[in-house]
Structure formats: C-alpha cells, structure tokens
Amino acid sequence: MASVSVYNIEGKEVGNIELNDAVFGVEVNEHLVHMAVVSQLANKRQGTQSAKTRSEVRGGGRKPWRQKGTGHARQGSTRSPQWTGGGVVFAPKPRDYSFRLNKKERQAALKSAFTSRVQEDKFKVLDELKLDEIKTKNVQNILNNLDTSKALIITASNDDKNLILSARNIAGVKTAFISSDESGVSSNINVYDILKYDTVIATKDAVAKIEEVYA
C-alpha cells in the first residue's frame, strides 16, 4: 500500500495514512482516462451550431450567365459555395455530441486518475478541514501552507457551506465532495477535475469514503 503524509491546515505533518491499492495503486489505463476526459468535455458541448447549405441559402435560382461563350467559368447558381453569400459545403448542423462510458470504465478511469496523482506526489491528505466563517483568505492561507495554488479540494460532505463559499472566489481552486448514506452515493468527483488541477487535496474522511465506494 502507498503511504502518504497527513497534514493539518497549518501545513505541518501530523501523521501518515495507508492508501488502498485497489483505488490508489492500480495500473494506470491511459486510454480509459483519455476516453473519460473526452466524454466529459463532449457532454458539455451544446451542439447548437448551425450554418446553411447551398440548398438553404436564399436566392440563386437563376443561372448567372449562359453556359458557353462568355469567357467565364460555367456557373449554375450564385449560391454555390465559391460565391460570396453562398452556402457552406459541409455545413454544421445541431447535433448531440455526448456519449457514455459504462460504469466499470468510469470507475477504472477514476482510479487511474487518483493513482497517477499519488505517483506524481500531487495527492495531499488533511486531517480535517473545517472553517468557522466564510472567508476566502482562510482557504488561501491553507493553500499557501500546503505550498499549492491550483487545487481540487475533496471533502466527505456537501454541507460545508463555509468552505464552498470561501473557496469559490479563488482562481484555480475547486471544491468537490463524496458522501454516502441510506439513499446511496453522492459525488461530483470526476477524472477531468482530478487531472486539471495541479494538486488534489482530500480530507481523511473523504479518502475513507473514496475507498469505501470504489475499492
């Protein structure tokens, strides 16, 4: 099992934690990671772009000049693609770009992303992360103490409004959560965010939840 240091909010090392190899020590599958990122970005696309083909552009019904004898190249319509105001050859049309990975593929990609962060020493664990008030400076101080600026902060609850509201105004910082109860698992952790941010910061409770859900 991989062992990582546990820090407090002052940035001091207060212990170590053993990470479950079933989640944080798997063989990195770069193909699935790539597919997960492409899927997430594709699912965000609106797909509302549209342009007109030559059959949809208004006008151009009459042949601009006779076929032969003018010295010009033959033309059948002023709405052909080579004309100004003409239609687009392969015009984009509204479409759905989204596609899905199955459950096992998504989980394998997520485990690979976590493993890569541990291997690159970009996964930091906090003993706890609780704020008494909504104050951006408090979160910034914690990041400075951990010597990081662009981070994904993972907690075990989505109810910590002080942390969410304090962190949302810091460029390059995002909060995520994972929790489970009788109704099931609730989480907004994804492969794209894990790879996008320089460092993944998770509380000990969040690490335990991740191992509980994905191990």
Task: Describe the overall structure.
With 215 residues, the chain is an alpha/beta fold. The chain folds into two domains: 161 residues, Ribosomal Protein L4, Chain: A (3-Layer(aba) Sandwich); 50 residues, no CATH class. It has seven helices and seven strands. A hairpin with a 2-residue loop joins strand 5 and strand 6. The longest helix has 17 residues. It is elongated, with a radius of gyration of 27 Å. It starts with a strand and ends with a helix. 24% of the residues are buried.
Q: How is the quaternary structure best described?
A: single chain
The CATH superfamily of the largest domain bears the name Ribosomal protein L4/L1
- The percent range for strand residues is 15-25%
- Helix and strand content put the structural class at alpha/beta
Quick take:
By secondary structure, the chain is α/β, with parallel strands linked by helices. The chain has seven helices and seven strands; from the N terminus they run ββαααβαβαββαβα. A hairpin with a 5-residue loop joins strand 1 and strand 2.
Topology readout:
Blueprint: E1 2-7, E2 13-19, H1 21-24, H2 30-44, H3 103-119, E3 123-126, H4 136-145, E4 151-155, H5 161-167, E5 173-181, E6 184-187, H6 191-196, E7 199-203, H7 204-214
Parallel strand pairs: 1-3, 3-7, 4-5, 4-7
Antiparallel strand pairs: 1-2, 5-6
